[in-house]
Specification:
CATH topology of the largest domain: Nucleotide Exchange Factor Grpe, Chain A, domain 2
Number of domains: 2
CATH superfamily of the largest domain: Head domain of nucleotide exchange factor GrpE
Structural class: alpha+beta
Oligomer: single chain
Low-confidence stretches: 16-23
Largest sheet: 3 strands, antiparallel
Number of helices: 3
CATH class of the largest domain: Mainly Beta
Strand order of the largest sheet: 1-4-5
CATH architecture of the largest domain: Roll
Shape: rod-shaped
Radius of gyration: 48 Å
Order of helices and strands: HHHEEEEEE
Number of strands: 6
């Protein structure tokens, strides 16, 4: 073999390798490009899925908070409505307490006409029944332990019939309206 034949063989061999290399390179590039595209697509799908799930979670959290706030608002409004209904008569009842006190004082005096006195007692009983239906109740004081939440001590005395700290006399009755003190009892307390 001479040098020319060797060169020809090398030239002949080179194009085949080059063709194979060219043929294989585009396939590899094509595969890697497709993989990159699919990977990029997967990544973009993942990021969009992550973003949408985060948005959904944020919206769900916001919705749950709004629902909780609304439920709390409804409960608060119901309580306020209940309080309004329960204490709507408070001012009227407070003013009627002075009338009841005067009625009781009038009934303590003897009347010349017994029929008239009986009629007054019936009217007083009817009025107290109506007020009791509205939630009014008298605070028990005589002989009870002094309680500053319900009693207003205006005097003290030494009375052997009662223990120390007990109410010995009620000077003015106290009343509760739906378990709320609207007027404390004015009392005399034993030392």
């Amino acid at each position: 073999m001479n040098s020319e034949e060797v060169k020809e063989q090398q030239k002949a061999a080179e194009p085949e390798e080059t063709e194979e290399a060219e043929n294989t390179l585009p396939e590899e590039e094509t595969e890697s490009a497709e993989e990159q595209k699919s990977d990029a697509g997967d990544e973009s799908e993942k990021t969009s899925e992550d973003k949408s799930s985060e948005e959904d979670e944020a919206l769900n959290t916001k919705y749950m908070r709004l629902m909780a706030d609304f439920q709390n608002y409804k409960k608060r409004v119901e309580k306020e409505k209940g309080d309004i209904y329960a204490y709507a008569n408070e001012k009227l009842v407070s003013e009627l307490l002075a009338v009841m006190d005067n009625f009781e004082r009038a009934l303590q005096h003897e009347a010349a006409d017994e029929g008239f006195a009986e009629g007054m007692r019936m009217i007083f009983k009817q009025m107290t029944d109506v007020l009791e239906k509205a939630g009014l109740e008298e605070i028990k004081a005589l002989g009870e332990d002094f309680d500053p939440n319900y009693h207003n001590a205006v005097m003290t005395e030494d009375n052997a019939d009662y223990e120390s700290g007990k109410v010995t006399e009620v000077l003015q009755k106290g009343y509760l309206l739906n378990k709320k003190v609207i007027r404390a009892s004015m009392v005399k307390v034993n030392n």
